[in-house]
Amino acid sequence: MELYSESYKAKCIRKLKEWGAPLDGWERMITYDVAEDEDYDDAVLTECELCGCKRVRYVHVMRNPRYFEDIEVGCICAGIMEGDILAAKERERKLKNRSRRRQHFVKKKWEEIADNIWVRTYKYHRLQIVKDYSGQYTVSDNSRCTKKYRGRTIDNFLSASYAAYDLADPKESVKHHA
Ligand SMILES: [Zn+2]
Fold first, then answer.
1. Ligand 1 mean position to 169 CA, how many Å?
2. CA of 4 to the centre of ligand 1 (A)
3. CA distance readout (Å), 163 to 2, 115, 149
4. Whether the Cβ atoms of residue 88 and residue 79 lie closer than 8 Å to each other
5. Which pTM was predicted?
6. Residue 5's pLDDT band (boundaries 50, 70, 90)?
């Protein structure tokens, strides 16, 4: 199976040379989903800094000790930069699956066991959401608890639900440093 064309690869390498950037020694720092909380809305897609493709959803952040800044690229460009397309594809596949599980998770119902207390079990995590008198939410599982989602106080049930998912299936599980 051909994953990319030679002319595509040549274009990427030309761009790196233009920038005076190294052609090897790139390491992926993290891969993230720009549309994590969206329901497949194209509006949030971003642009690959290397090839200019404007339909990137899963961003691979590439770093090189010999270059002054990180470069954010799509899957194939990440593979070209680190010299391993299959590894980049595999990372993207894992992240895609997690995003799918996460969207599926927030669509399913919680059980309201008392006023403003909801529970649910997922992957052996006993998850709980509690809404307090001021309208703020606290999310917990068997061992941890959080009052924040994306660095902000949780003031709606959907964000609480996303935060609960992240406790049960942390993003770190899809990270793996090469
Ligand atoms: Zn690209």
1. 28
2. 11
3. 39, 20, 6
4. yes
5. 0.81
6. confident
Structure tokens at 61: 């952040």
Q: Which two tokens stand for residue 9?
A: 């690869």
Residues 6+ positions from 106 with CB-CB distance below 8 Å: 158, 161, 162, 165
Distance 54 CA to ligand 1 centre (A): 9
Q: Provide the β-strand partners of residue 45.
A: none
Neighbours of ion ligand 1 (CB under 5 A): 48, 50-51, 53, 73-74, 77
Under DSSP, the state recorded for 145 is E
- What is the residue type of 114? A
Q: How close is the Cα of 176 to the center of ligand 1, in Å?
A: 21
DSSP 150: T
Q: Rounded to an integer, what distance in angstroms lies between the CA atom of residue 138 and that of residue 131?
A: 6
What pLDDT digit, counting tens, does each position of 52-96 carry? 999 999 999 999 999 999 999 999 999 999 999 999 999 999 999
